[in-house]
Amino acid sequence: MALSTGYSKIRTAVFISGTGSNLKSLIKFSKIKKSPISIKLIVSNNSKAKGLNFAKTYKIKKKVLNFKNKNSDEIKLLSILNINNIEMICLAGFMKILSKNFIKKFKGKILNIHPSLLPKYKGLNTHEKVLKNNEKYSGCTVHFVNSKLDSGKIVLQKKVKISKNETQVSLAKKILAQEHKLYPKAIIKIFSL
Ligand code: GRF
Questions:
Q1: Top mutation candidate among 14, 17, 22 for ligand 1, by most atoms within 8 Å of CB
Q2: How many angstroms is it from 141 CA to the middle of ligand 1?
Q3: Is the pTM of this model over 0.85?
Q4: Which atom number of ligand 1 is nearest to the Cα of residue 25?
Q5: Cα 133 from chain centroid?
Q6: pLDDT digits (tens, 9 = 90+) for 90-144
Q7: Catalytic: 180?
Q8: Which residue's CA is the closest to the ligand 1 atom numbered 9?
Q9: pLDDT tens string 17-51
Q10: Long-range contacts of 126-130, Cβ-Cβ distance < 8 Å, separation of 24 or more
């Protein structure tokens, strides 16, 4: 990703809606020397998101916007991102769909992590669908965000094997553990291109 920036590390915002385990792994990654990013802002549409606690733990700014009025909240958000000189956005379990207009403003600078081997199983309930279809493998994907759901250019994927007695819970856990490694790897890949 070619970003001409005056900062030594790419000022990044992470958007979450829930637990924030990917957020935590990204924060930890951001603190190592070889990391190209520095996390400056956590955004959530859910004031009760557990992941918001990482803002306090790691002294990172946070902002909650409920997205009930998406249009006005996105306008507010764009202004907050600007004020904080945010250069890249990582979606990590963020359950709202950003508008075309918003994505255009951060074109090529929004990443997402999805718990399936895209282009298979876009959208919600991926593990349920994967198991119903008796897939042998599933996995996770880091991709750029474009205006179509889970359809932007793929950066990196990790495959996992589905075990005989796999359940949605066990599969989610197995894939999540891989997500925590894949997101940092994908970021390193993007900035070394
Ligand atoms: C992850 O599985 C992610 O791929 C999906 O939502 C989950 C978020 O988990 N989009 P967490 O909040 O990062 O723990």
A1: 22
A2: 11
A3: yes
A4: 13
A5: 26
A6: 999 999 999 999 999 999 999 999 999 999 999 999 999 999 999 999 999 999 9
A7: no
A8: 93
A9: 999 999 999 999 999 999 999 999 999 999 999 99
A10: 127/168, 127/171, 127/172, 127/175, 128/168, 130/162, 130/171
